[in-house]
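Posting for a labmate who doesn't have an account.
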Amino acid sequence: MLTLPFVDEIIGKFQFEALCKANGIESADVSRARGKRVKVEYGERTFVEGAIMPIKTPFWALLPRKR
């Protein structure tokens, strides 16, 4: 039982890296967004295909806010 959380973290790490790679996300550059106003739009959550454990991914987008 003590190894289950550790195994979960290892599997999650690989799944997270695969999701980032599949979506073209290498890193987030927060410095480019500093001082800008944005609006968050949320969409429907969908299941990720090919994952060992069921994962739902949210859809959201940061859009420029009109002044």
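Reply:
Got it, the structure tokens are right above this. The CA atoms of residues 35 and 45 lie 29 Å apart.
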